[in-house]
Amino acid sequence: MLRILLADDEPLVLIGLQGMLEWEKLGYTICGTARNGRIAQELIEREQPDIVIADVKMPVMDGLALAHACHEKGPLPVFIMLTSSEDFSYARRAIEAGVVDYLVKMDLTPKSLCDALARAAEQVNKERALNDTARTPSRTEMEAGLRTMQDRFLIRLYTGLIPDEEHLRQEMKGLELQLDGCLVAACCEILPSNPGMTSDQQLKLNLSCCRMLETTLGNYLPAHATGTDVLHFNVLFTLREEPPQGVKAFLEPLVKKASQIVYNYFSARLLWAVGRPASAPLSLSRRCRELDTLRVLLSEGEPILFAGDAENDATASKLQTVAQVKAYIRDHLSEKLTLADVAAVFNFSPGYLSQLFGRYGGGFVEYITEVRVAAAKEMLEKGDKKIYEIAEELGFESSFYFSKVFKKSTGLSPREYQQK
After folding, report:
1. Which residues carry this modification: 4-aspartylphosphate (predicted)?
2. Does the bond joining 75 to the residue before it have cis omega, within 30 degrees of 0?
């Protein structure tokens, strides 16, 4: 409630003002009354009212002098002036004193007083908002603000939106980021144990995973995790120099350990695509683009892949081929996808495609099952299709076979999953 102080040298006016409105119902409370300006000034210092309704003419100190004295110390309280005349000079002086309204006693009504109070309350709220904005942020707020700016900067760096070294230096000022030495960027996907999580729950999980990883990895090297959407984030590793045994040999055990800790705490699995080392910050955008091929190859069976694994042309070509086959499978889930049929689309022999998928894709049949089950989960969560319709749309021979495959993969029947 807003606190109101009444100041007038006429007792009947004070009584009349107190009885004119149902103050409490309107969101106001009268914290005091005064018969002259000096007493009013003392009450203002003690009671800290938000609004003062004062008579212009009072003994010892008049209302305008009171408003001027208070206005010199700060914008609050807000003043509403009462007067017995319509003399414009009073109104002009009242405006100079920061008074928000000027009311003639003879014309005063509950409505005009309510309107004046509403304008005064609006001014009080504005002043409070300005004070909140102008106050010195706490250390926690400063740290949160710095973190937000660091994350925004890194996302722009990853996506190539920082054009040159000059812009890099300008944006780096004050960010407290260590970007010297050997830089390695990784893209990470979160696989929650509960597929029915809300967006808010996914966001909370993402933030928790990022902080847990930073804490765990921070025992060995600087690492900064930046969320890119609710189930994905990037991690920037900063090494003093490229390890003699290679980036993969150094980082892989750390990544595995951190992933296990995340799983122990949040029951969420992580899929990692780790890039090649960059010697300069502006090279990170190119390294991140190189990870696109790796990301589509990640699965629970192969949760960590390093770009260095695809350094030679032959391996890179095979990885690209598997990525293309996987994209074809995702686009044709409703069709009968046998090994021979898909191999024919790409002019391979079934044996070669099977070997290729076994080495770089986690298994042909396994991948099709994984993608179909994932798609089925989404459809079941939406709840707008019957189980037999989902089975038919995803290329299963029958709803019975669909249920069997789904339960083997998730431990629940489609109906149990949907109910859960």
Report:
1. 55
2. no
